[in-house]
Amino acid sequence: MDGHPISLRGVVKTFGEGQAAVHALRGINLDVAAGEMFLLIGPSGCGKTTLISIIAGILRQDAGEVRLFGEDLRRLSAGAQADFRARNVGFVFQQYNLVPTLTAQENVALTLMIGGMPRRLAMGRAAEALFDVEMSDRLEAMPNTLSGGQQQRIAIARAIVHDPRILVCDEPTSALDHEKGRQVMEILRAIAIRPGRALMVVTHDNRVYDYSDRIASMQDGHIIRMVRRRFTTPEPDAADALHANAPL
Ligand SMILES: Nc1ncnc2c1ncn2[C@@H]1O[C@H](COP(=O)(O)OP(=O)(O)OP(=O)(O)O)[C@@H](O)[C@H]1O
Ligand SMILES: [Mg+2]
Questions:
Q1: pLDDT over threshold 70, residue 26
Q2: Cα gap 49→32, rounded to integer Å
Q3: What is the DSSP code (8-state) at residue 101?
Q4: Quick count: other Cβ atoms within 10 Å of Cβ 228?
Q5: Which of 4, 28, 160, 224 has its CA 20 to 30 Å from the CA of residue 10?
Q6: 15 CB under 6 A from ligand 1?
Q7: Could you tell me the sign of the dihedral formed by the alpha carbons of 237, 239, 244, 245, in that order?
Q8: Where are the alpha helices (DSSP H) in 19-103?
Q9: For the chain, which domains are there?
Q10: How large is the average pLDDT for residues 175-185?
Q11: Is residue 172 lining ligand 1, measured as CB closer than 6 Å?
Q12: Does the global pTM surpass 0.85?
């Protein structure tokens, strides 16, 4: 497989019909490069969650093309699509969506066990992912006994436990104070910005802009502006100059 981790051409999504139709995406073109941390920003209702849900395969576009590592998933059978996504994509939901009756470790292991991995192995992998998000001391905790930031980190561990090459996160810092928000972004960057990986983060939180390579601004189903914050291949002088002039 080759091509960008994420590549979209003319992606359209409409909810409802006729008078009630909501045009959530009106023709999105986008390439996210390997090693890049890409932010998607814009006002409530502009289509951010819809867009990353389509990338993650939770929703299907009405028109246009979505390629992940050059693969147009519509050409694969339903089973092969599910398998491709399960191996390659991790998704952190806007709400954490943790299972309240399972421990932190079981929540993270669940995805692997659903995929057929034996419990003992899955629990081991889950412990490793929870270590990566600095939650090793709370493996046995139930979600309702944890803070918002801790639950968010479990949700991240669950999204990375199968070592996906594409990680998409919907508002991963919105419930967190400044320091915790920075910690989560540091963790995400360290995990995702490795060769052949890509990270896309939806956020309202301008405190996290500094962690990004590029920022796309959405409005009413369109991408209206793209700003490069940093070069993926560091060129310090040019990058600093751009950074200083960035209009965001
Ligand atoms: N399942 C659905 N059925 C009908 N309309 C929907 C559905 N999901 C989203 N929409 C509509 O599509 C538009 C885009 O929604 P989306 O959730 O993508 O926005 P968003 O940018 O993520 O907003 P927020 O910042 O509030 O999370 C909104 O007008 C929303 O009401
Ligand atoms: Mg949203």
A1: yes
A2: 17
A3: T
A4: 16
A5: 160
A6: yes
A7: positive
A8: 48-56, 78-88
A9: 6-93+164-245 (3.40.50.300)
A10: 81
A11: no
A12: yes
157 Cβ neighbours under 8 A, 6+ residues apart: 104, 108, 126, 129, 130, 132, 133, 135
Paired tokens of 39? 């932010």
Residue carrying structure tokens 């810092």: 173
Atom of ligand 1 at shortest distance to CA of 94?
27
Band (186; pLDDT cuts 50, 70, 90) = confident
CA-CA-CA-CA dihedral for 60, 63, 69, 74, to nearest 10: 60
The position carrying tokens 């694969």 is: 76
Ligand 1 atom showing the smallest separation from residue 46 Cα:
21
Region 183-198: mean pLDDT is 82
pLDDT over threshold 90, residue 246? no
State residue 231's pLDDT score.
52
Q: Determine the distance separating the centroid of ligand 1 and the alpha carbon of 44, expressed in angstroms.
A: 8
Residues 93, 75: Cα–Cα separation, whole Å: 27
